[in-house]
Each structure stands twice: as structure tokens, then as C-alpha cells.
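Session log. Operator J.P. requested a structure for one protein chain; no other inputs attached. Running the standard single-chain path with C-alpha cell output.
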Amino acid sequence: MAVPLLRLCSFSLSPTPYTTPSIFHSFNPTTTFLRFKLHSTLFHSTIPMSQDKGSTKSSSMTPYEEALEALSSLITRRTRVGDVNLEERFNVLFEYVKMLDLEEAISNMKIIHVAGTKGKGSTCTFTESILRNCGFRTGLFTSPHLIDIRERFRLDGLEISEEKFLAYFWWCYDRLKEKTDDKVPMPPFFHFLALLAFKIFSAEQVDVSIMEVGLGGKYDATNVVQAPVVCGITSLGYDHMEILGNTLGEIAGEKAGIFKHRIPAFTVPQPDEAMHVLKEKASRLNVPLQVVNPVDARLLDGSTLGLEGEHQYTNAALAVALCSMWLKMSGHLQDTNLEQTQHTLPEPFIKGLATASLQGRAQIVPDQHVNNEASNELVFFLDGAHSPESMEACARWFTLAIKGQDQTSFHQKMDNSKFSTEMVKMNIGERDHKKSTQILLFNCMSVRDPQLLLPQLMKTCADHGVYFRKALFVPALSMYHKVGSHALTPTDTNINLSWQLTLQRVWESLMQGNKVGKSTDAASEELKDDMGMSANNFEHSAVFPSLPVAIKWLRDRVQQNQSTRFQVLVTGSIHLVGDVLKLIKK
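Structure written below.
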């Protein structure tokens, strides 16, 4: 039986001020709304694609490489937090907005703004997919990218074309270069990207812009938005504490910095300390804050979420709430009816949730370098988890995936279009004859605490009966001060592996009951590549001088062990995940 869907929220949207007791409610994603009208407003004129692309030319570089070289010049070396006045740097953003004549364009944009510690990218991806399937033209800005900078800017679900990127990039870059000076220098890397996103989405006349916060919220470059349609806060946890604070309360306060006066907001269940701060911040600004609970799988009418992992049901619920409120607040509740039954979400919502796709999060990629049509001897399970909470979610997903509790789903979602249904059947049957070995491929930034990350990963896997045969630790491959194809560093025989050795000691300590592992004659073989580079190999772990060497070692092991299937979990850093994808998809 169809039910009317005009009731979305239990709070009033009248112009009268909100009272504190009525601000906080629980949102039920089964009570949705949905009538809308499609229309667009011309925010900014599009830029002719033939426009001159800047003045920094080099005959040895393509036009795209020239743009990436210019963009790389905006990356600042990491400095101590105390050396940077975040508020002062944030306030300069409004000067850049004026230089680019974006004030009116941004104020006219219908924006969904999302902050949080975990699940920001997933929530934004679900949100974009839902509204696109509702018939709207969408713009999505996320970070970081994995392979190509253009991944951060998506129009109607697709990364922006190289031609359009170049036109908009040079339009912004040249104007800022002309108008900035020593007093107001060129914006730093992420600030420029956020400004570029606003330019792209306004010029492309999208109906909705979904903006993911880069870091924190209050002083994030995306927070130049003064009047979003709706805001969302995903799950909060401990991350970037050197900038955001050492307590969940302090972190929540920074995330709540995206709240705007009387603009509706949604969040998910949070630890008490964090929720208290979110509610307090919302109360001060008369923000109607609602808490959403995970989507009931039955509402999907037999479909599954496009992003894997139990935690994605929480992200999906937040996306449903954000889309519902956006449709209501942006004036699209006309002309077209979207109805849900008593037991399912509207069809465009289900399709949006089911078809959402995000690289590097719970992604399964068979290595085509060694695999063939009849086997999957080497499969990479990639997830950019880098906090204790996300590490736990990653471990739960990994254990479920490798156990094949849903074999059909497992193979359908592997990132390899060459695998047919018949191949899937062969693979499932072959599992009876091959043993599986789990390998960890790990790196994290030195600001992370491996004493928090690795124990959480190991314990969660062990609780589900999964144990890693070996952990491989590798240094970063991408340069943090450069973007583009040249951002991958050449193999350096003098690379500093001290951090990877620290990670290895933590792992060996965990494996041997807090007793630091020592190399033995039986387990201290040297691992060498064609250049003669080597790394220490302990009983339960190894440090490799580079990621390509580690990948080669894995592929060699597959060739030498035809009766074993290697399942490699790649995690700890979204940059590591991106580098692995670059290498195995070549």
C-alpha cells in the first residue's frame, strides 16, 4: 500500500525561532517525503573549452601535466600546527572568493555540506547517487583522490573531463595569480581545490552540490558556504588530533563548525561526549539537529548497498536523510511524486544506494597480472581506514569478504569485468581445492599511532577467526608535495625506512605477546628485487624498501605456490590504497 510521503521531519520549518527542547529528534528513514520539480539556475557562465590555459608552458609536458605542475606549486610543506593561524588563514578564503567573483554564485548554490571523522566520502557518494537517480544534475567534491586529481570533481557521477578541468583550472589560477600579492599570496593546495569546485559546479549549473569537508569543519575551505540547504555529521572518532583536539568533545566542536543558523542538520549515533557537544552547538544556532539510525536492509526491497560493510547502513541512512531534507528545503516538492510503500524506500533512493561506487573503500580487486580466467590466486582487498574506529570496520568487512559468506556478492563486486558467471562458479568450486592465506600490506602516516591501529585490526580479525600469515610494511610511494603521474617517486636506494621498522616492531610485539620479534636464521631471508635492494624479513612480517618491490614479492609467491590463494588486505592509508591501485591496474 502506498503511503503519502510529505512528512519528513518532526520539527517545524516555520520562520519562528526554534526552542531548545524541540530541536533534537530521531529521524526515521522510513518516513520520506518526496515530490519535486527539476529546474536549474544559471549561477555562472561556463568557460569556453578553447580558452588559453595559462602561461607556464613546457614543450616536454602535456597541457594536463602543466596544470598539475602549477597545482603542485600550491602544496605547502607540513608545518607545526602552532605555526599556522587557522582562523586567519580561513578568513583569507573570502578574499579569494571575491577575486574570483564567486560570492553570488556560492550563495545561489543548493549545497549539502558533510563533515565527520569516518564515512564522509561514503555518505557523500550515496547522497550524490540518490539525487542523480532522482533526476537531478549533481556536483560532488570529495578528497583525497586515489589516482587522478579529477576524481575530486564529479559531474553527474563522472569525474570531470580533462578538457573542462583545464579550462576551469586556468581560469581560477590565472585570476588568482594576477590579483594576489605578498600580503595575500596564492591559496594553499586544498583551498584552491575547494574554490575550483565552487567555480566548476556553479558554471556547470548543477542542481545540487555535495561538498565533503577536507579536515575538521570550522576552518575547512569548504566552510565558506554561508547558507547550505542541509548539513550532515558522520561518525566521529579520534583523528587529526594535533589540529582538532585531543578529546571527542573538542573534535565534535570543530566538526560542528559547519552548522549554520537555523539550517537543518543530521547526524548518526555518536559517543555521549561528542553528541553532547553537537547538541550544544546546534542549540546555540537554533539548528534543528536530528539523529538517524542505520537503514533497515528490508527497506531496500532485496537490493544491497553499492558500498560494502556493516557501517555503510549508517552512512546510507544519513544520506537518505540529507536527500530527503534537500528535496524539501530546495523547493522540489512539486510536480513529480516519489512514493514509498510501508516497507521500502522510493525506487530512485534504492537504485541510488545500490549503484553507489567509491574507489578505495571496501574495494576488491583481483590482480590481473597473475590471475587468469579460471582462478584468483592474488586478490587485493583495499580500504583506506586510518583511525581505530575505521580500522575495526575495515577488519569486519575483510573477514566477511574472505569467508565468502555471500559468494555471489563477493564475486559480483570484484573490480574485474572479465570475470563471468561461469568463472565465478569455477572459482567457488576451486575454493575446495585451494587454501587461502591472508597477508597484510600496511602503511600509515607518522602522525598516526600504530599502537592504536594495529591492535584493533589484529583483534577484530582474530575475533572472526582470521589471522595474517605475514604483514608487509612499505614506505609511501606518492610524493605529498606533488600531484600527477610524476608524483610516484622512483626507487630510492637511500630511502628512510625507520617508520616502517617501527610499524614492524609493533606488529611483531603483538604477534609474540609483547615480546619484540627478533630475526632468526630460519626466518631472516633477504627480500631482493632486480636492483639488489633488500629488506629485513622477520617471522611474521617484513619491511620492503618500496611498494613495487612488495607487489613483485607477492606475485612471485603466487607463482611459487600454485595451491595457495593469497588474499591481501591493503589498509592504513588512503594514499597507500591509491598507490596500489596505480600499480596493479597498469
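Operator note: The first strand starts at residue 2 and ends at 3.
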